[in-house]
């Protein structure tokens, strides 16, 4: 729980995609753009993509998947990002576990009846609905991993205690105190970003050169999904209009520290700086209620800036807590982390 997802949004956060199932809008890139910033396809890192339709609704959520064995690392991205924010790290994590990264409503290739409803309750229900559609009533062991806004969703999903096999919770760079304190600056931050790009390559270049993302390969695969082509303006714009979600910002972070601390599963908090830790978490960390790691030389998007290190931290968390494909493994015994009441 650290700086706001939105505060640091990668330069790309579009509105609603021209097509829910196009990762890169079908428009020719300008030939002047350097190959250094050319888009990379998701299939370089994930094994497959799929669309998950939610029964009795018109909502369709796009997911990317990697790996075939082990527990499921279920990834929730930050505001303005997409599931591809975890692409490069997923290609490493899949050696030890399965990875599922979903595009939240209003982001990436997902399409819903209301892409602007980014309330914490709605997004929690979306995540639970996708997990249910993928695994039914008997899911494998699941480790929720959430970055920034996605970290808030992960914490709230864990707090509901409805996932029968929740085995771990990993929150990436979002802390209640820091996030709420940053809200007053959000609109200014969003409006100060470059709003239009002549090509996807230019958007990737702007993101990397501006320091929003520090890993070129990750930016090349994740940035395109945060854009859409605007025919009226003849340019690329953000897929997600975060400035229109202001009414929900406070709800994402209020009470987050206490909810995180109260979750009965193993917990890991990854931060880009110690200044992000608030009082409640400082006390909780001293009491040994969760594991905390400060990842040096990285920006807000830890999973993108240092994907190899991030993947190692996730797989070490799984090993340290002996999380197997069906739940927590105890020598000579296997049992789920949670049992249904």
Q: What's the quick description here?
A:
This protein is an alpha/beta fold. It is built from 12 helices and 13 strands. The strands form 3 sheets. An 8-stranded mixed beta sheet has the order 1-2-4-3-5-6-9-10. It has a 3-stranded antiparallel beta sheet with strand order 11-12-13. A two-stranded antiparallel sheet has the order 7-8.
Q: What is the average of the pLDDT values?
A: 87
Q: Regions with pLDDT < 50 over 5+ consecutive residues?
A: 1-26, 28-32, 332-341
3D shape: globular
SS summary, helix count: 12
- CATH architecture classification name of the domain at 36-64 and 88-138 and 167-292 and 300-330: 3-Layer(aba) Sandwich
Q: Could you say which structural class the secondary elements and strand pairing correspond to?
A: alpha/beta
What characterizes the major β-sheet?
A: 8 strands, mixed
* Rg (C-alpha, Å): 19 Å
Ends apart, CA distance between termini:
30 Å
- Helical residues, percent: 25-40%
Please give the order of strands in the largest beta sheet. 1-2-4-3-5-6-9-10
The succession of helices and strands, N to C, reads EEEHEHEHEHHHHEEHHEHEHHEEE
SS elements, strand count: 13
Which percent band covers the strand fraction?
15-25%
CATH H level of the domain at 36-64 and 88-138 and 167-292 and 300-330: which superfamily? Alpha/Beta hydrolase fold, catalytic domain
